[in-house]
Amino acid sequence: MTSRVPESFTLPADGAALEAVFLDMDGTLVDTEGFWWDAEAEVFADLGHELDEAWRDVVVGGPMSRSAGFLIEMTGADIALPELTVLLNDRFEARIDRGVPLMPGAERLLAELAAHRVPTALVSASHRRIIDRVLVSLGPANFTLSVAGDETPRTKPYPDPYLLAARGLAVDPARCAVIEDTATGVASAEAAGCRVVAVPSVAPIAPAEGRTVVGSLEEVNLSFLRSLITPMNGDGTVRVS
Predict the structure, then answer these.
(1) Most confident of 2-16, 179-193, 221-235
(2) pTM score, two decimals?
(3) Left (φ > 0), alpha (ψ -120 to 50) or beta: where does 72 sit?
(4) Which of 17, 53, 126, 167 falls 20 to 30 Å from 3 in CA-CA distance?
(5) Predicted confidence band of residue 92 (pLDDT cuts 50, 70, 90)
């Protein structure tokens, strides 16, 4: 499945400087980072290997190829990366088919963005087959488009996914807010030039210039996201209050 911008899509007409909001999926909107680790642990157990809990911070938030490749290297498991990728996706799908818990504040935030017609993209390192299943729980109507990890030559931590989302919505990355839960995702969004709100799920993320760290999505609303973007005048100059 390839995402596209709906024909009815238009930018908000309220003059807001915020042009779009991009959201990560696993660990940000849905409480599934633990699902991935459990799936990885189960698959490697079937292969006769036990995963070290310390590796969890290494693989969290990363693309499947990097995470799976790292675990093969560390365990010495006799399995090829393409085969392992299929096993991990299958095991993860079995888990999400039993229900996908939303992170606190996720449903309310998505509803607020939709109510104000803010262009919104789901940008994930997960593969399209996974995203489409999770979208059933998140509500596909809440997103103008979505970008999967297997739809760009390079995924997070490279900027490509967020740059693709910005091109798809015809917006300036510098005028977009990104919500991420891992250092890998934050690096991707910042490399694309976006303003970042980090909501750490597994490992801590330090505040930095252009980056705001919050405890949960319950602290995030549209007003807060708009405050991250420098207001602009109609001629493209910075608006001075």
Answers:
(1) 179-193
(2) 0.78
(3) alpha
(4) 17
(5) confident
